[in-house]
Each structure stands twice: as structure tokens, then as C-alpha cells.
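Lab manual, section 2.4: Encoding a predicted structure.

Procedure: take the sequence of the chain (209 residues), apply the prediction step described in section 2.3, and record the output as C-alpha cells. A sample record is shown.
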Amino acid sequence: LRAMALASSQLRNPLAGALSQTEALLEEQSDPQLRQQLSSLNRELYRMLRLLGNMSDAGRYCEGRAVCMETRDITMLMQEIFDHSRDLISHAGMQLSFRNLDTPVDCLIDSEKLERAVLNILSNAIKFTPKGGTIDCSLTRRGNMLSLQVQDSGSGIPDAIRGQIHSRYQRQPGIEEGRFGIGLGMVLIRAAATAHGGTVLIDHPEGSG
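Recorded output:
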């Protein structure tokens, strides 16, 4: 974990710079073919940046180090995350919708951990949703509990591995393809939920992921 964190720290800044440049070129480009090529490049750079982020955070998150709690309006944080993600998902050929709560809710949260978790969930949805698909998200409240629900029009997680996806470095037959990353994303998502007194539930509604 320390070796991964060291390697990722050296790569994140130059990669983030390259991602910023492709986003700027994408905004300026009007040629459809070039826009498609830039969109593909942008999507792969973002995927690399997410993997590096997971590598960097793996040791701190998985070894149970202290969280950095602060009081924040969670509705504002979530809105910022989804507003920032909407263009990226649009460039990938999908449509993102997000239904927020109607009123602000101040919570004691680790903003960085929650943001990383939500971005990992969205990244998984992007990888398994075909172009032209949809990713529908909503933040709901029941008493003192908040629930972030993410549903996409992809194929979902196969029943055979659904109970094992929280295992670190998961590499089972049938999930060897590149879309499954290095197996840290779901571990970090669960770690973030646990740090906030929550959990991760996986469902497979008919016809969606």
C-alpha cells in the first residue's frame, strides 16, 4: 500500500494537467470526429486519475486511520460533485440525472472521503453503462439517515460475484477485463460508508444496474 501511494503521488499532478488540457480542447473543438476522439481520451485520462487516487488513498482508508470530520451542508457537497461529473459523463455519451434534497442538511462528514466514494460509484456506473444509457441518482432522507441511490441502465453486477466485490484486489474469473480496475474502488466506497455510520447495499432491479 505504501509503494502504491508513493507511485501515485508522483503521477497524479502531471496526469491532472493532461486531463485539464483535453477538457479545454474539447470545449473549443467543433469537429464531430475530433470531439469524439477527445472525449475518448478524456474518459481514459479520468479513469487513470481515479485509479491513482484509489492507490494513493488505499493505505489511509483501509488501515482505519482517523477521518477528518467537519460540519458541512451535505446537499451542497453532493450538488457540487454531480455538477462537476455531468460534463464528463455527457462526453462519455451518457446522461446523468441527480435529484437532491429540497432543504439543506448539515452533517458531520469527511468531505474528501465522501467525494472519493461517490466518484468511484459514478466511475463504475460509467464503465458498465453503454453509450446512450442513463445514470440516475438521488439523495433521500428518512429520519436521521441519508441514502444516496445510484441506478444505471447497464447490465449490473453478476450474481456470482456480487457478494465478493468488497474484497480487496478482487480478481475472479469473469471479471478480469479492464473495466474492473485493480479492485480497490468498492473497498474505498465501503470504508467511506462505514466511517459515517453507514453501509453499502447492492440491488439489481430488473432491466438496470
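Check your result against the sample. The longest helix spans residues 32-62.
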